[in-house]
Every structure is written in structure tokens, then in C-alpha cells.
Amino acid sequence: EKICTFFQPIVSLKTGEIFAYEALVRGIHDNSTTLIAPCDLFRKAELETISIEFDRLCRKKALESFKQFHSESSSMLFMNINTSVISPENPERPHINVITNQMGFKPQKIGLELIESRAFSSTELIDFVAHYREAGFLIVIDDFGCEHSNIDRLIQIHPDVIKVDRSIITNIESDTYRQSILKSIHSLAQMTGALCLAEG
What is residue 136's three-state secondary structure? Predict the structure, then answer.
């Protein structure tokens, strides 16, 4: 369990206030303060066939860390969900409900970020989203515009929040093409009742 959690603030452009934090996981090398990048951690977990266990550990650590200052903050917590581990054998439905409840968090204060990895099947993903939306969790599509976070996934899950991938945001101030793409995504979000977030 030698991992730690950092919290990246999500800021409202209208008010300038932090309304949520995204939990970011990092590993810690033995006998060192050197951090291990998340892509290396998840790649190793996949090689060792413990992706599900590691995904759950990350959520547990995020909730434990967030609990320390949650009493002084009304902000939400956004947690990443590895969509590749959602399958008939491991639906992940009981786990998130149980651990969130154990930590004393209401589902309405938690956003589940579906990352850009390929899902086991669209049916399982849709069932997962339906279950947690009904339970009161916010559904977030992460890294929209990257890999499997595309229009197909948007249609499947009807997200409450669309997080626009950093590749679209980078250098947008000087790139009219990127600006046009972002305007289109923002219009789509407005028409579907979703909130639009810009990464980075």
C-alpha cells in the first residue's frame, strides 16, 4: 500500500472557487521519496493481473486522504474508474457503494471519472453507469477526445460532466482550430445538460 494521493483542484471559471478535487495516485519507491508515475503503476498492475485490486486500493486511499480535510470543505471528490476492469465477473457495483458509505461520504459528493481505457463491453459499462447514477453519484467522462473517450462513449453514458482532454486545451489560446473544437464540445455539453471542464 505504498501509494499516496494528491488532490488537483477543479475551479469554477464563473466564481473562481474550488468546487471539487480530483484524486491523483502516485507510488513511492522503497527507502525513498521518489514518486512512481501512475502509468507505470497501472501497467505493472496489469502485468501482475491485479488491476481490479489496485483500482480498489487507489479509491480506498483517495477516500481516506480526502476524509482528513473533508469536514472543512464542501467540495466534491472526483475519483478515476478504470473502465477496463468493469466486467460480468467483476462488476464493481458493490465495492464503490460499500467503501464510500464506510468512509461516511454521500454519493452526491462523489464524481466517478470513467477514464479513456477500453471497456470490457458497452453493456457492462452502461449497466455500471445506470447503477451509480441511480445511487446518486455524478458520472464524469474523463479525457474526452482521447482514445475511447469519444462520441460513442458520450452516447452510451450520458455524462453529467465532460472533461475535455488536455491535448485539445494545450496552446488553445493561439490555435483557432482547437478553439473551434472546444466551442463545439461546449455547445454539445450545454445541449445535453452536462458541465464542461477543461483539463490543464
Answer: coil
- Tell whether the torsion through CA atoms of 130, 98, 26 and 171 is positive or negative: positive
DSSP letter, residue 71: T
Distances (CA, A) of 135 to 14, 78, 102, 171, 186: 29, 16, 15, 38, 27
Query: Could you tell me the three cell numbers for 18?
Result: 474550488
Any bridge partners for residue 128, and if so which? none
Q: pTM of whole model > 0.90?
A: no
As a whole number of Å, the CA-based R_g of the chain is 17
User: What tens digit of pLDDT does each residue of 90-103 get?
Assistant: 555 678 888 898 88
Give the SS3 label for residue 96: helix
